[in-house]
Specification:
Blueprint: E1 9-12, H1 20-31, E2 36-39, E3 44-49, H2 53-63, E4 72-74, H3 81-84, H4 91-99, E5 104-109, H5 116-119, E6 124-128, H6 133-142, E7 146-147, H7 162-169, E8 175-178, E9 189-192, E10 199-202, H8 208-215, E11 219-220, E12 250-254, H9 258-274, E13 279-283, E14 297-300, H10 307-324, E15 328-332, H11 340-351, E16 355-357
Parallel strand pairs: 1-8, 2-8, 4-6, 5-9, 10-11, 12-15, 12-16, 13-14, 13-15
Antiparallel strand pairs: 2-3, 3-7, 4-7, 5-6, 9-10
Helix pairs in contact: 1-6
Length: about 350
């Protein structure tokens, strides 16, 4: 069902009160080895039965995903952790009480019940409980844990609507549950609990400050800021490869002074436009007027002082540049505070090393 010549069905579901018959049909498709895209509170996920190696392998084929990039296992309650994980640190229960259901993924040792297609060949497994009625209902209907990365072609901006899923994966997956736009707009935080202390491998919806209220000091892996060790195996999705990228190359401009950042972008945009390049600018509401009337394709991604608004618009904004047909995108960064850390991580990944500090 996950082959490129299949017909992808799109079922519209009410996120508040999902239709039980539609959810049952999707659960059967998952249990029988099909691939089902579904909404979560972060982005849309592409699910497969996490206990079925053949089904999980279909995720990698559909997405074109590198085989060493581990997946996140979605469960419907912390109470079922003991079925799959044989080494559960006591701190897990404190985190679960605070953050589950919600945008926090925990990397734990054990989990040998899952095939290596799920774990990326590691001795750890990443697991979370999503906070979305459709996702939870689907997991319960399937009766199995669900392995699910974002439901996009590998390397592309993550999908926050069913339309984004179909843009990338129509004909490659069995079914899309269309529950409307996802809310948060960026993926879950991935927190590694398998070592000596807690380490953020990927920033996301659960911010560092909130984690530290439960855990005390929390480290951030160097790969979060684009400093992955060459040749290392990724311990979490989003650590090693270029991700979240629109079709045109993106250059990220970082700096503390928004005016200087905008001036740097305008200088580069002028040179590129003089060479005949169609320039896109990823901006915020405060600086967007600086680019008016200059012939550039400007996409406004929220307010730089409200990183939650930027996160909600981030991936849709990056995908919009594809429709605008630009040749290059010049993007403004924001302060990496709170949810801004997740936004900057995604923009740095999308830039693939093309970062200018001003």
């Amino acid at each position: 069902m996950e082959m490129a010549d299949c017909k992808t069905r799109r079922l519209v579901v009410d996120s508040g009160r999902p239709d039980a018959s539609l959810i049952r049909a999707a659960g059967v498709a998952l249990r029988e080895g099909g691939l089902v895209a579904f909404p979560t509170e972060t982005v849309y996920g592409l699910g497969a039965n996490a206990l079925d190696a053949r089904a999980v392998a279909g995720i990698y084929r559909a997405k074109g995903r590198p085989a060493d990039n581990p997946l996140i296992v979605h469960i419907d309650s912390p109470r079922v952790l003991n079925r799959y994980i044989d080494q559960i640190p006591p701190v897990v229960w404190r985190l679960a009480a605070r953050f589950w259901p919600g945008p926090l993924t925990l990397v734990l040792r054990g989990g040998g019940v899952f095939p290596p297609e799920v774990t990326g060949g590691l001795d750890t497994v990443a697991v979370r409980v999503p906070a979305h009625p459709v996702a939870l209902a689907l997991i319960r209907a399937a009766g199995v844990p669900v392995a699910a990365p974002s439901a996009n072609a590998s390397g592309r901006p993550s999908p926050t609507t069913a339309a984004h899923v179909l843009d990338d994966l129509a004909g490659r997956i069995a079914l899309v549950l269309d529950g409307g736009p996802s809310g948060l707009g960026v993926e879950s935080t991935v927190l590694d609990l398998s070592g000596d202390g807690p380490v953020i491998l990927r920033p996301g919806g659960a911010i560092r400050q909130d984690l530290e209220e439960v855990l005390g000091p929390v480290e951030v892996d160097p790969a979060v800021n684009g400093n992955a060790v060459a040749g290392s195996r990724p311990r979490s999705p989003g650590m090693k490869y270029t991700h979240y990228a629109p079709r045109a190359p993106l250059v990220l401009f970082e700096g503390h002074d928004p005016g200087r950042v905008a001036a740097g972008i305008l200088a580069d945009a002028g040179r590129l436009a003089a060479d005949g390049r169609r320039v896109g600018i990823f901006a915020y509401s405060e600086t967007a007027p600086l680019y008016d009337g200059k012939g550039y394709s400007v996409v406004v991604a929220g307010n730089r002082h409200e990183p939650d608004s930027v996160a909600a618009l981030l991936y849709a904004s990056l995908r919009r540049f594809d429709r605008l047909g630009v040749d290059v995108i010049l993007a403004e960064g924001i302060a990496p505070d709170g949810l801004g850390m997740a936004v900057m991580n995604r923009l740095r990944r999308a830039a693939g090393g093309r970062v200018v500090t001003v």
